[in-house]
C-alpha cells in the first residue's frame, strides 16, 4: 500500500498537467496549442464550433494525406538533370588505331597455307562445278583433316521436306548444277556423331567468310601471344607521322595492345603510365594528326573483306571495344573527326541502377588484366567467356582468358565450334548476361562529326609518298600507295562538352520544408505543435492511469462504504485542486456549479476579461434551465 | 409551460445553438478584435504597440509582408506549369529499328524507255541547242533517238529558255528563235539573278493556262540545275499517269537489290524485307518492318550482331537525267514511322563498306499545358494521309497535299493521295505546274498556315547514327569476293559483278544503352501548396485558417456591421420623422441605446447567415436586468452573450 501511495504521488508530481479529465485536457490543449484550428473550436459559438471542428479535422486529414504523398515522392528518389554545354579544357580522348586486318599475310602464310588451299579448292568446286580443272590436278593433295571437322556443304532446299545435303568434296559434281544459292556450313559436336547442326547462309560469300574465321581462329589460337604480336602490324610500320597540336609525336607515344579482332592496336593518350594530355583549343590545328599505312597488299584475303583503319575514341584507362564503337577510316582519304564529349553523370544507388566501378557486379571482369576500368562491354564479354569456359571447357579466342583455361582449338576441343555457335545464339545466356551486368554511372561518349576528302591530292601524291617511304624504309623507292595510306585529324569541336548531370530532386531538406509547408499551409503548425500533441497524448495516458486507479479504488470503497450516495472526491482530485493553480480557472469553467444559477433578477457577474474564459458561454447553455 | 410544442422546440434550438452577430459592434472594434485574436503575427503587434511611430512601423511591416506573400505566391502560381527534364539510361535488350533501303535510281532505265523516250529526246535536244552537247559522246542509248516522236504539246508548253543579259529576250531551244516574254515575270530566286554576272541564264516559264499574262519565270544559275528541275517536272507528269502496280514492276525487285543479308549472327533473306513503294525512289525494302507482327530485337551490340546487307546497285541501268549520283539510300526509323527517305536518308557509297553505328534515344515531352505538342495528332485539323503514326513531317506534307488538291484540283506526285483525288498530270490538269510552283512558294514562305497548324509530336524515337566508310572489297579479297557474289546472284546474270555495282552496309547498335529523356512536371499540387504554406508561414505565420478568418472577419462580419449601420440610420431617420410629426421629445433611453457601445443595438442587425436561424424567444421573461457596466476595456467579444434583453426589445417593437 505504501508503494502504491508513493507511486500515485509520483504520478501526480509528474503529471501536474492540465487537468483531471479528458475534457479539461482537450479544452486546455485547444486553447493553448499553436496550431490554428483548435483554438477556434473553443472560442466560437456552438454552430461555428461545429464548423471549426470539422474544418480542423478536414485540415488535419489533408495534412496527413499530403504528407503521405510527399514522403512517397521522397522515397521514389527522383532525380533532376541539368545540362551544360560549352568549351573547356578537357582531356583529349584516348585514340586507338588498328588495322582492319589482324595479321600480315606474309607472316601468317605458313600457318594458313593448308586452309587457304582448301578454301581455294572449295571455291573452285562451288563456282566451276565442271570436272577436269587443271589447277586441281597440279596441286598437291589437300589436307582434308581440317575439312572433316567442319565441312562446307550445299543444301538444296527446293524440296522443303527433304533437303539434299552435298559435301563439296565428296559429292559428285553433276548434282551441283541444280543448286539454290545456299552456301551452308555445318558444325558437328563430335565427328561421326548425330549431334550436328547446320548453320544456314543464303549467301556463299558469308558462309565462306564465317567458315574461314572459325577455322583460322582455331589455328591461330595455338600460336603464343608474343608470336601473334610479332605477326601483326608494328607501330613503326603503321604510324608514319604524328602531330599533336604543335608538338611532334611518333609511334613511341602509342601504347601497344593486342586486340583479338584486329591484332596489334596502338593507343594514343591512354593515360596508363603518363598524365593524359589536355586540349585547350578547338579546331583541327590543336588536335591529333596522324598518317597511317595499312598496307592493303598484305591483307589476309579471306579473313577481312573490308580494308581500312579501325579507330576508336574512348576514355583514358578503358579498353577499346572496336567492334562496338569503332569507326572505319578509308585508305586514300583524309578523315576529319570533330569530337564532342557527351557525358552523363549519374547518382548511383538508390537514384538509378548503375555501378560506380563495377565492384558490385557479380561477373568476374576478365579485362581487368589489361588494367582497364569497368565498362558494360567488358562485363558482357567476360560474362560470355565465363559461360563458354563453363559449358564448352575452353575460352573463345576473341576474349581474354580466365586463369587456368586455354583457348579453344580443333585438336583439344573438337566440339568447340558447335558449342560456341549454340551458346552464341542462345537467347537465354544473353539475357543472363544482360541482367547481371550494370552500366556505369559516368557514361562518356564521344560524338563524332566525320568528314572525308581524297588524300593525297594528285598533285602532291608523288612527293608525299616519296618522303613517307624514305622515312619509314630508308629507301628511295616508293613503298606506299593510295590503297594503304590514311590521314586522320581528330580534334575538339567549338563546343566540346555536353554534360548531363543528375542531382537528387528530393533531398531531406526539401522533404522537411515541404512537410512544414503543408502543415503550415493548412493548420499553421510546426514541429513544436507535434510535440505539443505528443504531450497531450502522454497526459491523457496519465489521466487514464489515474482514472483506472481511482476506479479500482472506488470499486473497493463501494464495497466497503455502499451507504454513501456519491463517491467522495478522490485523493488525487483533492490534491490536484490545491496544487494545480495554473488551471484553476479551467476548473471553474468546466464545473457546472458556478453557472447553474437560476435566472434570478440581479447583477450578473462583471465581465472582467481576466475572469471570463470561453468555456463559460460554451458550457453555459447546457446547464441553464433543465 | 403553456407554450405550443413548436414554440418550445424552436426555443430549445435557440438556446442550444444561440445565434450571435459579428464579433464586435463596430468596424473598428471588429478590427481590433481581429488583430488581437488572429493567428497571423503582424496584426497583433499593430494593436498592442505603443506610440504612433512604432505602430506605423508595424503597419508598414505587416503590409509589406502581405505584399511579399502575394508576390511570391503569384510567382509560384505562374511557374506552376514548368517541366523538369530527367535523363535515364537503361541497358537492355533493344528492339531493332526498321531499316529502309532504296536504290537512288527509282526505276530501271531500260524498262522505262517506253515512257521516257520522248522526254529524253527533248532533253538531249535542249542540251545540244544550248551547250553543243552531242549525242555521240554520251553514254545515253541511241535507241531513244530512234523513237519517232509525234511531238508532245506539253514539252512545247514548258520549254527550256535561255535568257540574255537580264533582258526579257529569250531563246527557245525548240524554235531557236528569240522572243520577248510577255506578262508579269517573277524570278524564283531574284537575289541570285540580280547579283549574278553571268550572261546566259537558263530557266523555264510556267504560265497560268487560264490567264496567259500570269507567268512565273524560274531561272537557275547553272544549267545542271535547270535541266534537272525541268526534267523532273515532266518526269512527274509522266509517272503520275502510270498505275502503281506497273511502277512496282518497273522498279527493282528484292532479288535485284539485295545480294546477301545477315542479322544478329544469322543469315536472312528477302523474306525479312517488306516492299514499300516510294514515289521518288521506286521500290524500297524495309527490314524488320514489323508487318508480320514481330519486331526483331538485339541483345548484343557491335557490328557482328547488327544488320549486314550487300546491295546490288546496277549503275548501268541508271536514268542519266533524273539521278546524277550512284549508290543507295538508307534510313533508320521506327516501325510506326513513315520513312522520309528523300528528306533524311543517308547515302551509301558503292565499292565501300559503310558502317552505321546507332545510339538509341527516346524522348518524351509533356503536352499541354506544359508545351505545345500533340500526343497522337488527333487534335490536329489535318488529315494524316500516310498510314503511319503522326509526325511533324507527315503533317506538313499532308497539309501541303490538301492545299494542293484544294487549289489545283489534283494531288502532287511525291505525296500520298487523299481520298477521291488523283495525281496531277498535264492531260487532265494542264495548269497544275504553275499552280504547284506558286503553292510551293507560298508553303515555303509559311503563307499556307501549315507550319502554324502542325505541331511536333510529344514523344519520338531517335537513332543517332555514326557513319564511317571503309574500302570494300579490299584489293586482295576483291577477286574471290566478286566471284562468289556473282555466283550467289548466279542464276540471274552471267557476268561477273563489278565492285562499283556493290555496296556493303552494316547497321548495328553501338551499345545497348537506351537514353530516355523525359519531361516531368516540376510542380505538383502538393508541392505548390507546401510552397504556399512555406511563404505564408515565413512572412506572417499564416495558414488556411487565417484565410478563413480573413474571409469571416473582413467579408461577412464587416459587411453585416456596415449593413447594420445603414439599417440603424434608416431607422433613426424614420423615427425622427415620426417624432417630428408627433412632436414628442427624444426619450433618454433611445439616446442611450444609440451609443455604439450599447449591446442592445446588436441584434438590430440585418440577417447574416448566423441570424438566419434566429427565432423569436418566448416572452415569458419580463424582468428587466441591469445592463452591465459599459466599460470598453472590459468588454470583449463576449459582450453579446446577454441575449435575452435584446430579443425582448425586438419583441417590444
Automatic annotation (TrEMBL), chain A:
Could you tell me which PROSITE patterns the record lists for this protein?
Answer: ASC (PS01206)
Q: Where are the transmembrane segments?
A: 50-75
Location (main, coarse): membrane
GO cellular component assignments = apical plasma membrane; cytoplasmic vesicle membrane; sodium channel complex
Belongs to which family?
Answer: Belongs to the amiloride-sensitive sodium channel (TC 1.A.6) family. SCNN1B subfamily.
The record gives the membrane topology as:
Multi-pass membrane protein
Natural source organism: Calonectris borealis (Cory's shearwater)
- Name the chemical reaction catalysed here: Na(+)(in) = Na(+)(out)
Sorted alphabetically, the keyword list is: Cell membrane, Cytoplasmic vesicle, Disulfide bond, Ion channel, Ion transport, Membrane, Sodium, Sodium channel, Sodium transport, Transmembrane, Transmembrane helix, Transport
Query: By what name is this protein known?
Result: Epithelial sodium channel subunit beta
GO molecular function terms listed in the Swiss-Prot or TrEMBL record: ligand-gated sodium channel activity
Write out the biased-composition intervals (Pro residues): 598-607
- Where is this protein found? Apical cell membrane; Cytoplasmic vesicle membrane
Region of interest (Disordered), ranges: 589-626
TrEMBL record, chain B:
Catalyzed reactions per annotation: Na(+)(in) = Na(+)(out)
Q: List all membrane-crossing ranges.
A: 53-71
Does the keyword section mention Cell membrane? yes
Q: Name the segments for region: Disordered.
A: 578-602
Question: Cross-referenced Gene3D superfamilies, in alphabetical order?
Answer: Acid-sensing ion channels like domains, YojJ-like
**Database matches in PROSITE patterns:** ASC (PS01206)
Predominant cellular place of this UniProt entry's protein: membrane
Q: List GO terms (cellular component aspect).
A: apical plasma membrane; sodium channel complex
Location relative to the cell: Apical cell membrane
UniProt membrane topology term = Multi-pass membrane protein
* Record key words, sorted: Cell membrane, Disulfide bond, Ion channel, Ion transport, Membrane, Sodium, Sodium channel, Sodium transport, Transmembrane, Transmembrane helix, Transport
Question: Which superkingdom heads the taxonomic lineage of this protein's source?
Answer: Eukaryota
* Entry annotated with the keyword Transmembrane: yes
InterPro entries in the record: ENaC, ENaC_chordates, ENaC_CS
> Mind listing the GO molecular function terms for this protein?
ligand-gated sodium channel activity
Q: Which family does it belong to?
A: Belongs to the amiloride-sensitive sodium channel (TC 1.A.6) family. SCNN1G subfamily.
| Record's protein name | SCNNG protein
Which gene is transcribed and translated to give this protein? Answer: Scnn1g
Amino acid at each position: 500500500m505504501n508503494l502504491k501511495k508513493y507511486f500515485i504521488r509520483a504520478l501526480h508530481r509528474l503529471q501536474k498537467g492540465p487537468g483531471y479529465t479528458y475534457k479539461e485536457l482537450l479544452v486546455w490543449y485547444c486553447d493553448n496549442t499553436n496550431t490554428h484550428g483548435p483554438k477556434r473550436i473553443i472560442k466560437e459559438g456552438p454552430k461555428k464550433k461545429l464548423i471549426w471542428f470539422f474544418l480542423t479535422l478536414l485540415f488535419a486529414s489533408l495534412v496527413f494525406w499530403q504528407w503521405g504523398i510527399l514522403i512517397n515522392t521522397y522515397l521514389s528518389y527522383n532525380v533532376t538533370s541539368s545540362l551544360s554545354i560549352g568549351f573547356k579544357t578537357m582531356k583529349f580522348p584516348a585514340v586507338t588505331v588498328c588495322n582492319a586486318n589482324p595479321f600480315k599475310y606474309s607472316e601468317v602464310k605458313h600457318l594458313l597455307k593448308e586452309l587457304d588451299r582448301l578454301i581455294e579448292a572449295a571455291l573452285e568446286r562451288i563456282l566451276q562445278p565442271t570436272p577436269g580443272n587443271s589447277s586441281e590436278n597440279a596441286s598437291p593433295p589437300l589436307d582434308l583433316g581440317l575439312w572433316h571437322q567442319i565441312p562446307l556443304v550445299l543444301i538444296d532446299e527446293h524440296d522443303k521436306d527433304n533437303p539434299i545435303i552435298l559435301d563439296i568434296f565428296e559429292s559428285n559434281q553433276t548434282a551441283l548444277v541444280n543448286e539454290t544459292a545456299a552456301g551452308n556450313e555445318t558444325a558437328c559436336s563430335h565427328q561421326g556423331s548425330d549431334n550436328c547442326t547446320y548453320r544456314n547462309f543464303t549467301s556463299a560469300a558469308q558462309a565462306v567468310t564465317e567458315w574461314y574465321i572459325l577455322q583460322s581462329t582455331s589455328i591461330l589460337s595455338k600460336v603464343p601471344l608474343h608470336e601473334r604480336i610479332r605477326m601483326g602490324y608494328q607501330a613503326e610500320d603503321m604510324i608514319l607521322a604524328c602531330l599533336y597540336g604543335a608538338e611532334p609525336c611518333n609511334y613511341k607515344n602509342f601504347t601497344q595492345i593486342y586486340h583479338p579482332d584486329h591484332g596489334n592496336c596502338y593507343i594514343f593518350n591512354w593515360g596508363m603510365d603518363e598524365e593524359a594530355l589536355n586540349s585547350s583549343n578547338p579546331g583541327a590545328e590543336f588536335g591529333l594528326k596522324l598518317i597511317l599505312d595499312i598496307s592493303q597488299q598484305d591483307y589476309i584475303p579471306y579473313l577481312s573483306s573490308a580494308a581500312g583503319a579501325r579507330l576508336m575514341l574512348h576514355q583514358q584507362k578503358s579498353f577499346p571495344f572496336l567492334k562496338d564503337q569503332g569507326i572505319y577510316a578509308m585508305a586514300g582519304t583524309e578523315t576529319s573527326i570533330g569530337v564532342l564529349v557527351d557525358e552523363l553523370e549519374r547518382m548511383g544507388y538508390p537514384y538509378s541502377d548503375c555501378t560506380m566501378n563495377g565492384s558490385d557486379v557479380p561477373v568476374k571482369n576478365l579485362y581487368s588484366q589489361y588494367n582497364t576500368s569497368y565498362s558494360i562491354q567488358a562485363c558482357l564479354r567476360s560474362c560470355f567467356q565465363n559461360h563458354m569456359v563453363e559449358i564448352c571447357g575452353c575460352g573463345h579466342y576473341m576474349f581474354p582468358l580466365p586463369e587456368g583455361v586455354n583457348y579453344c582449338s580443333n585438336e583439344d576441343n573438337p566440339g568447340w565450334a558447335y558449342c560456341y555457335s549454340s551458346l552464341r545464339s542462345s537467347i537465354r545466356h544473353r539475357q543472363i548476361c544482360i541482367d547481371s551486368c550494370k552500366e556505369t554511372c559516368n557514361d562518356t561518349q564521344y560524338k563524332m562529326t566525320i568528314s572525308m576528302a581524297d588524300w593525297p591530292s594528285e598533285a602532291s601524291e608523288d612527293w608525299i609518298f616519296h618522303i613517307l617511304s624514305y622515312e619509314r624504309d630508308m629507301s628511295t623507292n616508293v613503298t606506299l600507295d593510295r590503297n594503304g595510306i590514311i590521314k586522320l585529324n581528330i580534334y575538339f569541336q567549338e563546343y566540346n562538352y555536353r554534360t548531363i548531370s543528375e542531382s537528387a530532386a528530393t533531398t531531406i531538406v526539401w522533404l522537411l520544408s515541404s512537410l512544414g509547408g503543408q502543415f503550415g499551409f493548412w493548420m499553421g503548425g510546426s514541429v513544436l505543435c507535434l510535440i505539443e500533441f505528443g504531450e497531450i497524448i502522454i497526459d491523457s495516458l496519465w489521466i487514464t492511469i489515474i482514472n483506472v486507479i481511482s476506479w479500482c479504488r472506488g470499486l473497493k470503497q463501494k464495497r466497503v462504504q455502499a451507504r454513501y450516495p456519491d463517491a467522495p472526491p478522490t485523493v488525487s482530485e483533492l490534491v490536484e485542486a490545491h496544487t494545480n493553480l495554473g488551471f484553476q480557472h479551467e476548473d471553474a469553467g468546466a464545473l457546472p456549479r458556478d453557472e447553474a444559477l437560476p435566472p434570478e433578477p440581479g447583477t450578473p457577474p462583471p465581465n472582467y476579461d481576466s475572469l471570463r474564459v470561453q468555456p463559460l458561454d460554451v458550457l453555459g447553455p447546457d446547464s441553464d434551465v433543465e | 409551460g403553456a407554450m405550443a410544442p413548436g414554440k418550445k422546440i424552436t426555443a430549445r434550438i435557440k438556446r442550444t445553438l444561440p445565434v450571435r452577430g459579428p464579433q464586435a459592434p463596430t468596424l473598428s472594434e471588429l478590427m481590433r478584435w481581429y488583430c488581437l485574436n488572429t493567428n497571423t503575427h503582424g496584426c497583433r503587434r499593430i494593436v498592442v504597440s505603443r506610440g504612433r511611430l512604432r505602430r506605423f512601423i508595424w503597419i508598414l511591416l505587416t503590409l509589406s509582408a502581405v505584399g511579399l506573400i502575394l508576390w511570391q505566391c503569384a510567382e509560384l502560381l505562374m511557374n506552376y506549369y514548368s517541366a523538369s527534364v530527367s535523363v535515364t539510361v537503361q541497358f537492355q535488350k533493344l528492339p531493332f529499328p526498321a531499316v529502309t533501303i532504296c536504290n537512288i535510281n527509282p526505276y530501271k532505265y531500260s524498262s522505262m524507255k517506253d515512257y521516257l523516250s520522248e522526254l529524253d529526246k527533248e532533253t538531249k535536244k535542249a542540251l545540244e541547242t544550248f551547250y553543243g552537247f552531242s549525242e555521240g559522246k554520251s553514254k545515253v542509248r541511241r535507241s531513244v533517238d530512234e523513237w519517232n516522236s509525234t511531238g508532245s504539246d506539253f514539252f512545247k508548253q514548258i520549254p527550256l529558255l535561255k535568257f540574255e543579259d537580264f533582258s526579257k529576250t529569250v531563246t527557245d531551244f525548240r524554235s531557236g528563235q528569240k522572243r520577248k516574254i510577255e506578262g508579269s515575270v517573277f524570278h524564283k530566286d531574284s537575289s541570285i539573278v540580280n547579283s549574278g554576272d553571268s550572261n546566259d541564264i537558263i530557266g523555264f516559264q510556267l504560265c497560268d493556262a487560264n490567264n496567259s499574262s500570269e507567268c512565273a519565270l524560274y531561272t537557275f544559275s547553272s544549267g545542271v540545275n535547270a535541266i534537272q528541275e525541268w526534267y523532273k517536272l515532266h518526269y512527274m507528269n509522266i509517272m503520275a499517269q502510270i498505275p502503281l502496280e506497273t511502277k512496282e514492276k518497273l522498279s527493282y525487285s528484292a532479288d535485284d537489290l539485295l545480294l546477301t543479308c545477315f542479322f544478329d549472327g544469322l543469315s536472312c533473306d528477302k523474306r525479312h524485307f517488306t516492299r514499300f513503294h516510294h514515289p521518288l525512289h521506286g521500290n524500297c525494302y524495309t527490314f524488320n518492318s514489323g508487318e508480320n507482327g514481330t519486331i526483331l530485337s538485339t541483345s548484343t551490340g557491335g557490328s557482328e550482331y547488327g544488320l549486314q546487307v550487300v546491295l546490288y546497285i546496277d549503275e548501268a541501268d541508271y536514268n542519266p537525267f533524273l539521278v546524277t549520283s550512284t549508290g543507295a539510300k538508307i534510313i533508320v526509323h521506327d516501325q510506326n514511322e513513315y520513312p522520309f527517305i528523300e528528306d533524311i536518308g543517308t547515302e551509301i557509297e558503292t565499292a565501300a563498306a559503310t558502317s552505321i553505328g546507332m545510339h538509341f534515344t527516346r524522348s518524351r515531352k509533356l503536352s499541354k499545358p506544359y508545351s505545345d505538342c500533340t500526343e497522337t495528332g488527333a487534335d490536329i485539323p489535318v488529315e494524316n494521309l500516310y498510314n503511319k503514326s503522326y509526325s511533324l513531317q507527315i503533317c506538313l506534307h499532308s497539309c501541303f497535299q490538301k492545299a494542293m488538291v484544294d487549289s489545283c484540283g489534283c494531288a502532287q506526285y511525291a505525296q500520298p493521295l487523299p481520298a477521291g483525288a488523283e495525281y496531277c498530270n498535264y492531260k487532265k490538269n494542264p495548269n497544275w505546274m504553275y499552280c504547284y510552283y506558286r503553292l510551293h512558294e507560298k508553303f515555303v514562305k509559311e503563307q499556307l498556315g501549315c507550319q502554324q497548324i502542325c505541331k511536333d509530336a510529344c514523344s519520338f524515337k531517335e537513332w543517332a547514327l555514326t557513319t564511317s566508310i571503309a574500302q570494300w572489297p579490299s584489293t586482295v579479297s576483291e577477286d574471290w569476293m566478286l566471284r562468289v557474289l556473282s555466283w550467289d546472284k548466279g542464276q540471274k546474270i552471267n557476268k561477273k559483278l563489278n565492285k562499283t555495282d556493290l555496296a556493303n552496309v552494316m547497321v548495328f547498335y553501338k551499345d545497348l544503352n537506351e537514353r530516355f529523356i523525359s519531361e516531368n512536371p516540376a510542380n505538383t499540387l502538393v508541392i505548390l501548396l507546401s510552397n504556399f504554406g512555406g511563404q505564408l508561414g515565413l512572412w506572417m505565420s499564416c495558414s488556411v485558417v487565417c484565410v478563413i478568418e480573413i474571409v469571416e472577419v473582413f467579408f461577412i462580419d464587416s459587411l453585416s456591421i456596415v449593413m447594420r449601420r445603414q439599417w440603424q440610420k434608416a431607422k433613426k431617420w424614420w423615427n425622427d420623422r415620426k417624432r417630428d410629426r408627433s412632436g414628442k421629445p427624444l426619450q433618454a433611453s433611445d439616446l442611450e441605446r444609440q451609443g455604439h457601445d450599447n449591446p442592445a443595438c446588436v441584434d438590430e442587425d440585418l440577417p447574416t447567415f448566423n441570424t438566419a436561424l434566429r427565432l423569436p424567444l418566448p416572452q415569458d421573461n419580463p424582468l428587466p436586468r441591469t445592463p452591465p457596466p459599459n466599460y470598453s476595456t472590459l468588454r470583449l467579444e463576449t459582450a453579446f452573450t446577454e441575449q435575452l434583453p435584446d430579443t425582448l426589445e425586438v419583441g417590444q417593437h
